[in-house]
Amino acid sequence: IPTSPVPTKSEEPISLNRASVTELAQLPGIGPVRAQAIVESRPFVTVDELKQVSGVGAKTASLALNRVVIY
Q1: Contact 53, 38 (CB under 8 A)
Q2: Is 20 left (phi over 0), alpha (psi -120 to 50) or beta?
Q3: 18 and 71 in contact (C-beta within 8 Å)?
Q4: Taking the C-alpha atoms of 21, 26, 30 and 36 in order, what is their torsion angle to the nearest 10 degrees?
Q5: Do 47 and 16 contact (CB within 8 A), yes or no?
Q6: Which H or E element spans position 69?
Q7: What distances in angstroms separate CA 54 from CA 9, 18, 57, 61, one per listed residue?
Q8: What is the pLDDT of residues 1-20, one digit of tens each?
Q9: Taking the CA atoms of the chain, what radius of gyration do you get in angstroms?
Q10: Strand, helix or coil at 68?
Q11: Chain segment 37-51, per-residue pLDDT in tens
């Protein structure tokens, strides 16, 4: 019987407004320097604002957008 895989911690959505630098650095294309820039750019109202963070271009943001939430 096929079952849905249980999401791992790395697959759970990451909050742009609450996550630590370490958690944000797990996002595709986001390392510790960009993660720190995200923290310094808070608060976010929409996930699309990620594209406005210094060092995060449209390509990097598109890789991460399906993994982030605002809450």
Answers
A1: yes
A2: beta
A3: yes
A4: 0
A5: yes
A6: strand 68-69
A7: 26, 19, 8, 11
A8: 555 444 445 578 999 999 99
A9: 13
A10: strand
A11: 999 999 999 999 999
Strand-pair category, 68-69 with 14-15? parallel
DSSP-assigned states of every residue in 1-31: ---PPPPPGGGS-EETTT--HHHHTTSTT--
Nearest to 44 by CA among 15, 12, 64: 15
Up-side HSE of residue 9: CA atoms within 13 Å toward CB?
5
Provide the token pair at 11: 């697959």
| Cα–Cα distance, 18 to 6 (Å, whole number) | 23
Per the structure block, which two tokens stand in for 21? Answer: 């630098």
Model pTM score: 0.81
